[in-house]
Design a protein that fits this description.
Blueprint lengths: L53 H14 L1
Amino acid sequence: MSIRFPLQADGLLDTQQPAPRFKSVAGAGDQPLSRGSNVFTSDEVFSPLMVMKQSALENNLHQLDAFC
C-alpha cells in the first residue's frame, strides 16, 4: 500500500478479495448454492447463513427507487 500527498490512490489500496466469496457454502466458495437447496439440513451449508425473503427484497428495492 502506498499513499502520496495530496492523496492519490494507486489502485493497490482496495485489491480484490480472494475466494471464498460465498462463505456459507462448503467447497471452494466460488458460487452460491443451487436454487432449491435445503439450507437447514444440507451438509453443504454452515454458519453464518443469511436467508432473504425475495418479496421483502423486491419491496425494499421499489421503496428505495421511489425515494430516489
